[in-house]
Design a protein that fits this description.
alpha/beta, 3 domains, five-stranded mixed beta barrel, globular, binds S-adenosyl-L-homocysteine, binds iron/sulfur cluster
Length: about 450
């Protein structure tokens, strides 16, 4: 049986789809990039804003047409929209035969075998578990240079706008022994860079009544793995960024000078109604402390415009904080009402037109900062981990795409017939483009 897999949303979803992919391949299912070749579809969904949720419904509407020519075709829907609306998929799209939430993922391979045996069966795997659901990994023979490792599931923060605590459940830290075992196994199989993943990695272990090590300690343990070259993590909540974690940025050899630290808003009033539990000046203090131990830190963020009650002055404060920090890049979103979250009841709502205007202004300001920050790299030396051949190849030369220690994309021209994927090259940065850098290998 052939399957086609589609993934929306954050890196947690990408990592979940990766696991499912490897498991299905090891069971003899065949992955196909062609929708018309597929016997079944897997759609891993995101519900963080209204748009990606709507996309899922229009996608399923389109995919069900494949049933006209091949009546056995069916779909499995997983991830955050599945957790949110669950069995509704069975009613609205009868060709959906499996819905699964994040904690149900581990049971999907077995469920698929049951679906294959009984064509009338439909299965829903939507229960939350009390503990982090461990799952067996089936690694392929060849792994790429980078890997994600989950360290926790869910979130306890209930920021006023956010649906994640409802779709991913309460915070459940994974055992540090399991995390370290997986990291060691990946490095043994040639992985050079590991990104630790969780909705709020800085509160790792805090759900374990003192029975688990802290996040800072976990970073120290992973850093000690022989032959690991680079360590990153995402996402951090500013309120849980501890002095110990700040300290390790100046100490650990493998920890990259890169941090994604979502600010959401620069207005203290808005931060308060968002329930973020920090002020803009606390955020700026954190940035200062981080930059004093790690001056080269590449800092990225998430920002929301048009949260209910956001005035022009509030918005202006967000721009002010952006100018004080100078982010390397930023993901910015128009506020979107989500079902059941606190802010959906908050008033007054900001008009769509105003949100569009604010987002444009914010994104233009960020473009300027991105350019400035990239230009400040020109003339510097950096270590670039090569990921793949560049998309754009200049005539007569070859070019490779990689990332520097700060996580910036660097294209490196190098005439070599060897496959450089996974190599770490010392590079001089010669040019800044709009969203990336160009470099030359230092001989
Ligand atoms: N756990 C992470 C990311 C959560 S979702 C964190 O706490 O930072 C990713 C981003 O989506 C959030 O940082 C936020 O900027 C945005 N987001 C979440 N809910 C939203 C909503 N209702 N409307 C608009 N953007 C939202
Ligand atoms: Fe959502 Fe806040 Fe949790 Fe992030 S920390 S996932 S924004 S509730
Ligand atoms: Fe989306 Fe769920 Fe991730 S809502 S952002 S896929 S946690």
């Amino acid at each position: 049986m052939k399957y086609h897999i589609l993934t929306f949303g954050c890196q947690m979803n990408v990592a979940d789809s990766g696991w499912l992919d490897r498991s299905l391949t090891s069971m003899g299912y065949e992955k196909t990039p062609d929708e018309d070749q597929a016997d079944f579809f897997i759609v891993n969904t995101c519900s963080v804003r209204e748009k990606p949720e709507q996309k899922v419904y229009s996608l399923l509407g389109r995919l069900k047409e494949f049933q006209e020519k091949k009546p056995w075709v069916f779909a499995c829907v997983g991830g955050c929209v599945a957790q949110q609306v669950g069995n509704f998929f069975f009613q609205r799209f009868p060709f959906v035969r499996l819905v699964f939430g994040t904690d149900g993922l581990a049971m999907v391979p077995a469920a698929l075998q049951r679906l294959e045996k009984d064509e009338h069966l439909k299965i829903s795997l939507l229960d939350f578990q009390d503990l982090y659901p461990e799952r067996t990994n089936h690694w392929p023979d060849k792994l790429g240079p980078q890997a994600f490792v989950n360290i926790m599931q869910g979130c306890d923060n209930f920021c006023a706008y956010c649906i994640v605590p409802y779709t991913r459940g309460r915070q459940k830290s994974r055992s540090s022994a399991e995390i370290l075992r997986e990291c060691r196994e990946l490095v043994d199989r040639g992985v050079k860079e590991i990104t630790l993943l969780g909705q709020n990695v800085n509160s790792y272990g805090q759900d374990k009544d003192g029975q688990e090590i802290s996040f800072a300690r976990l970073l120290r343990e992973v850093d000690r793995i022989n032959d690991l070259k680079r360590l990153r993590f995402t996402t951090s909540h500013p309120k849980d960024m501890s002095p110990e974690v700040i300290k390790v940025f100046g100490e650990l050899e493998t920890l990259c000078p890169q941090l994604h630290l979502p600010l959401q808003s620069g207005s203290d009033d808005i931060l308060k109604s968002m329930g973020r539990k920090y002020t803009s000046s606390k955020y700026l203090d954190l940035v200062e402390a981080l930059r004093s131990v790690c001056p080269d830190l590449a800092l990225t963020t998430d920002l929301i415009v048009g949260f209910p009650g956001e005035t022009d002055t509030d918005f202006q404060q967000t721009l002010n904080v952006m100018n004080k920090v100078g982010f390397d890049s930023c993901f910015s979103f128009k506020y979107s009402d989500r079902p059941g979250v606190r802010s959906s009841l908050m008033q007054p709502k900001v008009s769509e037109q105003e949100k569009t205007l604010r987002l444009d202004i914010l994104q233009q300001l960020q473009e300027e900062w991105t350019r400035k920050r990239l230009e400040s790299r020109v003339g510097r030396k950096d270590l670039v981990l090569i990921e793949a051949p560049s998309k754009m190849q200049k005539a007569g030369t070859r070019s490779w795409k990689g990332r520097d220690l700060g996580g910036r994309v660097v294209n490196v021209g190098l005439d070599s017939s060897d496959d450089l994927t996974g190599k770490i090259l010392e590079v001089a940065v010669i040019r800044a483009k709009k969203h990336s850098l160009e470099g030359e290998v230092i001989r």
